[in-house]
Amino acid sequence: MVIGNSASMLNGAPVTTQDIDLLIRDTRLNRRKLARFAEEIGGSAPRRVSELSNVEWIEGDLAVPVEIHFDRISGGLTFSSIRSRAHLVAVGDEKLAVAALADVIRSKQAANRPKDRAVLPILRDTMAVKTKIE
Amino acid sequence: MGRKGGRSRSTAKRSASRRNGARGGRPRNAELFARTVREVCIALAPQVPQIDPGDLNLIVRCLLLPPARRAVFVTRRKDGRYVF
Predict the structure, then answer these.
(1) Of chain A's two ends, which shows fewer C-beta atoms within 10 Å, N or C?
(2) Please, which residues 63-102 of chain A have a Cβ atom closer than 8 Å to chain B?
(3) Using N-to-C axis directions, what is the helix angle for B53-64 and A114-133, rounded to 10°?
């Protein structure tokens, strides 16, 4: 499932990002899929961002790295809760499960890093406009 | 019988086509899209006065784009140049 600012973009927010964040369930099958995915994008094996974090990243031929989050993200958001509000977005021949903008905002509020605080105003504005348009 | 092609002789139709497109005929898709964005912004602006008009324009544009055109990733070609 696509989360983070990639999800914001696919939700229509005018933002950019330096990575692609994915949220998956931490299962043996998914670990195998992840290794295959890394291979397909010509990337490194997934490795931890830091010792203190369970987030992993893949450096590949995509020019931006792919960050993998397992089971939950900031804001107490679990895979199931995010998936229940996610929607499918067609990109080329693929359909991507994309986290709802409200969930991206909630996780960024909770993470509260400078880069999250920088992007929150435009995400909130997008949310307000989206609500009016829909 | 009926119209056999060629330009319409109606002045009203000819002037309408001049209004719609710069050189007559249907306006380009980009023109139509820009008009729609502008119309939506005008309608929404009073409802979201806290949003800067420039930001509102950006947001509405992104929301009205088809999802596949919203995400722009930079990728490196084999020749080392970067493309969208």
Answers:
(1) C
(2) 63-64, 89-92
(3) 70
* Amino acid letter, residue B79: D
Question: Could you tell me if A20 and A60 are in contact, meaning their C-beta atoms sit under 8 angstroms apart?
Answer: no
Across A76-85, A118-127, B65-74, least confident range: B65-74
Report the candidate in A32, A29, A1, A31 with the shortest Cα–Cα distance to residue A107: A1
Partners of A56 in beta bridges: A48, A68
Largest CA distance in chain B: 62
Write the pLDDT tens digit of every residue in B4-25.
Answer: 666 656 787 777 666 666 566 6
pLDDT: is B74 or A81 the higher one? Answer: A81
Q: Which residue has the tokens 């692609």?
A: A20
Hunting for tokens 């055109």 — which residue is that?
A: B69
For A2-127, the fitting CATH number among 3.20.20.70, 3.30.460.40, 1.10.150.130, 3.50.50.60 is: 3.30.460.40
Q: Is A16's CB within 8 Å of B60's CB?
A: no
Residue with tokens 């119309």: B39
> What is each CA distance from A21 to A39, A97, A130, B36, in whole angstroms?
17, 12, 22, 32
Report chain B residues whose CB lies below 8 A from the CB of A91: 67-68, 71
* Complex confidence, ipTM: 0.72
